[in-house]
UniProtKB/TrEMBL annotation:
Protein name: Pyridoxal phosphate homeostasis protein
Organism: Paractinoplanes pyxinae
Keyword Zinc-finger: no
Limits of the Alanine racemase N-terminal domain: 24-231
InterPro entries associated with the record: Ala_racemase_N (IPR001608), PLP-binding_barrel (IPR029066), PyrdxlP_homeostasis (IPR011078)
Gene3D superfamilies reported in the protein's UniProt record: Alanine racemase
Lineage: Bacteria, Bacillati, Actinomycetota, Actinomycetes, Micromonosporales
Signal peptide: none
Annotated PANTHER family: PROLINE SYNTHETASE CO-TRANSCRIBED BACTERIAL HOMOLOG PROTEIN, PYRIDOXAL PHOSPHATE HOMEOSTASIS PROTEIN
PROSITE patterns cross-referenced by the UniProt entry: UPF0001
Amino acid sequence: MTDEGRRSELAAALTEVNGRIARACEAAGRTAGEVTLVAVTKTYPASDVVLLAGLGVTDVGENRDQEAGPKAAEARAAGGTPRWHFIGQLQRNKARSVLAYADVVESVDSVRLAEALARAAEGRTTPVEILIQVSIDGDPARGGAAGDDLWRVSDSVAAAPGLRLGGVMAVAPMDWDPDRAFEVLHGLSERLVKAHPGATAISAGMSGDLEAAVRHGATHVRIGTSLLGMRNPLR
Ligand SMILES: *Cc1c(COP(=O)(O)O)cnc(C)c1O
């Protein structure tokens, strides 16, 4: 497809997604400006990031360091400089690599990972924003801090000079009603904000459940498929 063809395809999808966000906000008595769209560009090329940035998308999300590092460099060279969110499972030995391009790491779920990121962020002039990934059903298999780990991880992040505790992130468990899942997340966020008043971000909601997330206070929605199209299922 030509660049112009892809540009109009992305523009149409973006209008559709922004419309869904706006309608969900209106129904919830919120203003659309309260919700940031994070375009999840995993498996799609740097050229899509540049096109989306040109269409006004300010934030993009990636889940694999090997893919995201070169893509961020390529997008930057082509004039696309959105905020990069790392949203995937992260190994401690990749902390330094991820901080070379990420502005936000949304998937911090252990004290050990928080400590590795804190060491990698030492001496930064702008702290990297950290969201604590929460396991809503308490099953740590797909990542996420369960139970009291949320409070331990957030205290560790808050104490690190190179990190700024931004809030929470979660994926609704497959077998849960998303409204119930995001209601639980909202409750955890309220408790977190009591202890850390600046940690107000709630990253929740994907292509299939963004409306439920917005109903329950999401400040960030992470949208891949509805914006960029179906991904190759093997990736
Ligand atoms: C891939 C991914 C998304 C986007 O999912 P879609 O259903 O394609 O919108 C959101 N969050 C995380 C953590 C992801 O890995």
